């Protein structure tokens, strides 16, 4: 196995540009977020200048990636495989919620959930942001309480609603259930919830 080679300025610049495009950010937006000038970032992307460690860290943070990701060309077009065991997790009441969508992409908020018999997202309905939210049942059956309405959903059923409407998911069946939550755009307080 050959040792990794140090990237040239052009290699680094092309990766910065690729991550910026992957994030859907303008050159000016990344420069502003990184606290560098647009002309510096343009020269970096075009391979006409190199970045100091400090500048590299700032640009990486603005892009939502690590400096190592900017130096490694193996994952410019993808975040890579997220193994089930490595997903960030939140334990709910008889249920588990897993973060699926992770940086550098930031256009969607996606979670997987597993509900034991009687499991729920909590005793009370909750709301967050004002995003388009889609709930997809991938196994079993769940009930979505959406304000004062109840929707019984079975495997492969889905429902779309605004995340600002109070809601709660509960498994009232006698078997485990699994769901996917998809929010777009991500809610402002995007933590492990939904």
Model description:
A hairpin with a 2-residue loop joins strand 5 (141-146) and strand 6 (149-154). The protein has helices at residues 9-23, 27-34, 38-45, 53-63, 67-71, and strands at residues 89-91, 93-99, 109-120, 132-139, 141-146, 149-154, 158-162, 167-170, 177-184. The protein has five helices and nine strands. The strands form two sheets. It has a six-stranded antiparallel β-sheet, with no helix packed on it. The protein has a three-stranded antiparallel β-sheet with strand order 6-5-8, with no helix packed on it. By secondary structure, it is an alpha+beta fold. Helix 2 (27-34) packs across helix 4 (53-63). The radius of gyration is 21 Å and the shape is elongated. 25% of the residues are buried. It has two domains: 9-75, lambda repressor-like DNA-binding domains (434 Repressor (Amino-terminal Domain)), CATH 1.10.260.40; 84-184, Jelly Rolls.
